[in-house]
Every structure is written in structure tokens, then in C-alpha cells.
Amino acid sequence: MRFARVRRQVRGIWEAAKSVQLAVLLFLLTRAFLVEAFRIPSGSMEGTLLVGDFLLVNKLLYGAELPFVGGKLPAVRPPARGDVVVFQFPPDPTKHFVKRLVGLPGDTLAMVDGRLVRNGETQREQYAVHRDDGTDGRSIEFRWQRDYLAPGVDARRYRPTRNRWGPIVVPAAHLFVLGDNRDNSLDSRYWGFVPDSLVRGTPMLVYFSVTPDSLREQAWPDRVRWHRLGALIR
Known about the structure:
234 residues, alpha+beta, Umud Fragment, subunit A, 2 domains, 7-stranded antiparallel sheet, 3 helices, 17% helix
């Protein structure tokens, strides 16, 4: 009788352990192939995303990576102009950035007085936010653009600024990204193109959102941006 009771207890523990293992396995598979959480750490996408937003990122759309074996699953579709994308930061792939994709391989891009020009056409970007601080100085960070200038542009006379640069041509297998908060974004204007192999997915929705840490004296429920929960990202 006592032995039977011990067997039932052991069996119950084993069944519970199997349930936990299955749950962990499903979590790992979901994280590897379907969705992953991502937190917005900066204001470079303000207007679309806020500091303190927590996102669910669709990794399947562009082809999820296969852990341990390398390669990717087939993509549902390739990245498209206007997509919000999560990618590994080219100068430091341990970091992940989120920006707006504005240029595909072969596109000719320029900016004139803060307005994006793609393939000769000025773009109407309703998602772009300009909070002009009155400065638009040159920077040595823009010098990389000289290696990608469109035909006919004299590199010796090229003097790019944050709001006035190009035209440059996006090379094969690379993408050009900008933050929606155009006057406060560290993006492709400064550090260059994103290899398409570094793109990890596209955010689907905001599953949680809190005000920045500087407001931590508020009560916790007051810090939650309840109106942001479940917001779709476009």
C-alpha cells in the first residue's frame, strides 16, 4: 500500500516534470521561429514607438534563423520599403535596433531639407516626425557616404549634413534605415547600410508599455501606458 502511494507520487512528479519540459521546449521553439520580445530603449522612433514600449517581433516573416545549424527558414516575403524592422546593429551585432526601412538594394536615396527623396521622387512619409532644433551641421560620421555616391556626384565637393545628403546608391544585399524621429535618430545616415542578413524580424504589436525610469517615483499602475497595450505597429 505504501509502495503504491510512493509510485503514484513519483509518477505525478514525473508527469509534472514532462509538462514543464514541454512548456520550455514550446517557449524555445516559439522564441526561435515565431516571435520574440523586444524593448524600445531610445526615442529614435517616437511618433510610432515610445521609450518603454515592449514589442512582440514576428521573426517568421523574413525567414527565422535555424539555431545551431545555420541558415534560415524560407521567408514569407522579403523586407519592403516602409516596414519597421528589428536588426542587429552592424557596428556591434550584440545590440538590436529598430528603424524604418526606406531603401532597398539599387535604390538611389537623398535627403533635401529633411525630406527623403527616393529614385528621384520626394516621399510623403506620414510617420516621420521632425522636431527641428535649428542645427544641421556637418559631421565626419557622414564621410562613409562618399563611397556610395550616385554617378555624377563629385565626391571632392560633397558636404553632407543630417538633413541634406546624397544621392547615394544602396548596394546589393544591403538596406537603408531611418528613425521616424528624424532629428533625433542614430541611423543609416551616420553608420551606413544594414546587411540584409542582420534583419531579425518586424514588430507586430505593443504588448506592454511604461513611462521611462525617470518617472519611477510614480505608483506602478500610473506608469503603465494602458492605452498602448495591444497597439499595432505600422
